[in-house]
Amino acid sequence: MTNIVFHSMPDSAYLWTAMHVADEKGAVYTFQPLVYRSDEHLRLHPFGKMPVMQHGEFWLYETAAIAHYIDRAFVGPALQPDAPRGQADVIRWISIVNNYVFPVMNRFTKERLVRPAWGFEPDKAFIDSAREPLLVQTRLIEEAVAAGGFLVGSELTLADCFLLPHLLFFSLTPEGRDLTARLPNARAWLDRMTQRPALAQSPMMAAFAAMSAGADRAGAARWAA
What we know:
Layout: E1 4-8, H1 13-25, E2 29-33, H2 39-44, E3 52-55, E4 58-61, H3 63-73, H4 84-117, H5 124-148, H6 158-170, H7 174-181, H8 184-194, H9 203-218
Parallel strand pairs: 1-2
Antiparallel strand pairs: 1-3, 3-4
Helix pairs in contact: 1-3, 1-6, 4-5, 4-6, 5-8
């Protein structure tokens, strides 16, 4: 079968989700860099988001659709339950990640780790405003993974692939470290996800290691919870 090509900026969290889905399915892919909002980018994705998938003559954008396609088009373990309720839970969690987790955790990580690395002060007003939604989000994650070990039951699904980059990088911030230390099931989920063989060679882990080293050097102040 033709290999997948992901067209994206390399540090896109949603590129990492798409690659993780492909890795879990054993699908072979390559990466083609895009310049953000260039003519080529907007031709491939009219809303200027990442990534875009190419599979032979088939082109697809929007990560939820890409993940669903890879799961159905390639052999390997199914990443969606057969039962209607299980499918609904997967879709619900993908929606939670896209609409609530991503806007907060992704921005929070950038404010705490990326902006200081470039010599800018973090946006304190945003950090203060994010504390309550972060508590809600991490509590829901803790409750969801407590029973079966994954967001939906006892097997990894697309929902876990969507959450992984956001919680993984958020856990590098002082607030993220504090929260995950107090949420044993969420911490165990993170450990379980990062130990999966499909993730071992992922570019996401190389980026995580680099950012982790930077976070340790920065020594940012802890969050007074």
